[in-house]
TrEMBL record:
Protein name, as recorded: GNAT family N-acetyltransferase
Species of the source: Streptomyces sp. R41
Segments forming domain N-acetyltransferase: 15-166
Alphabetized PANTHER family for the sequence: ACETYLTRANSFERASE
Pfam families per the UniProt record, alphabetical: Acetyltransf_3 (PF13302)
Coiled coil: none
Amino acid sequence: MTPLKEQPGLVWPTATVRDSYLAGERADCEAEGRSTEWLGPAGDDFEAFVAQRRGVRERWGVPSTVFWYVSGEHYLGTLVVRHSLTPELAEVGGHVGYHVVTPWRRQGHATRMLAAGLAECRRLGLDRVLLTCDADNEPSRRVIRANGGVPDGRAQGEDRFWITLGAAGAAGAA
């Protein structure tokens, strides 16, 4: 894996990371035993694939913004901010979802990516955000706690965490 020359950051999806995106997501699918079929259409017309993910779009029944975490031509992961919650998202899913692709895991990227995502939530005027993760996903729990996550029980097999944003919250200092 090539060392990163630029500080990673959140950006709207961009075609400049095409090869890295496809390779990273393919590695994730293969590592997790998921189908890679969806990557075919993405690779065939990556510009259209990117266009479908840019901007504020209705997803999961709420306005949502997709960000990619990139460094130069390297795609490291995806972060989604849901601007509000449906009753279902208030149980499982929450305001923020994220993942770092397999080649870039265990290097602190998820913690930094979530911190940047919380800054985006703050810009949207959110005071508190809900994050959930699978009960057996200890790495994600560590990332959420490192960003100020306070446990709030479990629902439908997922652990729930609230993060308070603003000057007083840990996320405010990130």
